[in-house]
Amino acid sequence: MSSPLIVLVGPTATGKSGLAVELALLLGGNGRGAEIVNADSMLVYRGMDIGTAKPTLEERGGVAHHLIDIADVTQKASVAHFQTLARAAIADIRARGAVPILVGGSALYTRAITDVFEFPASDEVVRARWEAELEAVGPFELHRRLAELAPASAAQIEPGNGRRTVRALEVLELTGGHRPVIPEWTYELEDVHQFGLNLDRAELDRRIDNRVDQMWEQGLVDEVRGLLDAGLRDGVTAWRAIGYRQVIEFLDGAATQDEARAAVKKATRRFFRKQLGWYRRDPRITWLEANRADNASRIAARLDLLDSGRS
Q: CA 306 to CA 26: how far, in whole Å?
């Protein structure tokens, strides 16, 4: 029996992780084993728990989760490497007759895993030179330079996202061009079914504010302090995660704690609106209201994975 790949997407704080576990347990109770594959680039880092809202062992409900806690914060993450790991995990789950459930909040990562997706050229020397320039002039000045060279590409990148700006400049130098859009909607993997969680914008804003406040109460600042001792600054990608970057600014004295907390909320809202725009352009996604209690059973029945759903 072939196993479909179920993909759960949508903005942060819509309940994707909880729905994935609920769905996996539902399928397991109906004789179809299911395992979850993480598609969030920051959940791979050990110790980055509070700021990423990483599901605890209890919240995972005994369901196997792949690609969580597989790297130190000093290691570099890339979409290309993540694509390889995730596709291998999905293939392994399917080979064992179980249903893989891919869960993520980044359209770039989920599409890199499921779709025909080729990566532009890369050169460590060129990238190192642009990373040194980033350190020298800062992300906003570097983004301004990208805007002069490739305005369409710059328009797709947040001015403060130095890592993506560096990558765009690297590709531009190596190839003479940088495509600001990802490929068309063509699946590389077979039998993919995407479901998005939709939530009222005002409710989503409220959930984000509450989540960030809860992170502070759970000890996000202390978590970041510990990660700095573990070499967080030495990594290329981990320290730039939303929440961690702002807390580092507070610990460095560049912002007050209240300013840092407000900045995390603002950055999270900006991120989810951008991601939602990407997802809304994908006609293959079936949208579900996030607050519905029967979403797991609706997905399972739609894919004919429950005995009660068989005709």
A: 9
**What are residue 34's phi and psi, to 5 degrees?**
-145, 145
Name 262's Cβ contacts closer than 8 Å, sequence gap at least 6.
Answer: none
pLDDT of res. 158: 84
For 158, counting Cβ atoms within 10 Å of its Cβ (0-12 exposed, 13-18 middle, 19+ buried), the class is middle
Residue 16 has pLDDT above 80, yes or no: yes
Q: How far is CA 58 from CA 61, 187, 207, 221, in A?
A: 6, 34, 21, 23
For 246-304, write each residue's pLDDT tens digit: 999 999 999 999 999 999 999 999 988 888 888 998 999 999 999 999 999 999 999 99
Between the alpha carbon of residue 115 and those of residues 78, 106, 227, the distances in Å are 17, 14, 34
Return d(Cα 121, Cα 180) in angstroms, integer.
Answer: 15
Which uninterrupted H or E stretch holds 282? none
Handedness of CA 45, 49, 52, 57 (dihedral sign): positive
Q: What is the pLDDT of residues 30-57, one digit of tens each?
A: 999 999 999 998 999 999 999 999 999 9
Task: Indicate the burial class of 301 (C-beta count within 10 angstroms; 0-12, 13-18, 19 or more).
Answer: middle
Give the Cβ contact number of residue 191 at 10 Å: 12
First vs last C-alpha separation in the chain: 17
What's the rounded Cα separation, in Å, for the pair 53 and 153?
A: 30
Alpha helices for the chain (secondary structure H)? 16-29, 79-95, 107-114, 124-137, 139-149, 151-154, 162-175, 201-218, 220-229, 244-251, 257-280, 295-302
- Bridge partners of residue 226, in order along the sequence: none
Pairing of strands 192-198, 99-103: unpaired
Of residues 175 and 199, the one with the higher pLDDT is: 199
Question: What mean pLDDT do residues 112-141 have?
Answer: 85
**Residue 124 CB neighbours (<10 A):** 9
